[in-house]
Specification:
- By secondary structure, this protein is mainly α.
- About 40% of the residues lie in helices and about 5% in strands.
- It is built from 5 helices and 2 strands, in the order ααββααα.
- A two-stranded antiparallel sheet has the order 1-2.
- The chain is globular, with a radius of gyration of 14 Å.
- It starts with 7 loop residues before the first helix and ends in an 8-residue tail after the last helix.
- The model has no long low-confidence stretch (mean pLDDT about 90).
């Protein structure tokens, strides 16, 4: 959170949601806690695909959860999400809606789900 100026509540909620609280196959088998997809043609990274995904949905494989969290932070500081840097680090609601608007996930209820997780677990306490 301090290194990349991303609210800890957002990172934690996304990790919980995207990995089904660490129980998804992608998290357990490939240390990918955020559903991070591979770069074009999987160049410079290792990828995995599961039968419930399109054959074109290739997801990153990480050596550890730490690398997954680091890549998530790097991703959220990229050009697609620059508008989020203007938001307060305690404004988790607008961060959630901003991620949804930028297309982080295809779920139309993505922001609401993140907000529900943050509020249910009081994750915003880590951003004060």
């Amino acid at each position: 959170a301090r290194l990349f100026d991303i609210p800890a509540a957002i990172t934690l909620a996304q990790g919980l949601l995207e990995s089904n609280a660490g129980d998804s196959r992608l998290a357990k088998n490939d240390n990918n806690h955020f559903g991070i997809k591979c770069k074009a043609k999987c160049e410079g990274c290792r990828c995995a695909n599961y039968t419930d995904d399109s054959k074109y949905d290739m997801f990153r494989v990480f050596d550890s959860a730490w690398y997954s969290f680091r890549e998530h932070s790097t991703l959220l500081t990229g050009a697609r999400y620059t508008h989020l840097a203007k938001l307060s680090k305690t404004d988790y609601k607008n961060w959630a809606y901003g991620l949804e608007a930028a297309g982080y996930a295809t779920d139309a209820q993505y922001a609401e789900k993140l907000i529900q997780i943050i509020e249910a677990l009081d994750l915003h306490r880590f951003d004060k």
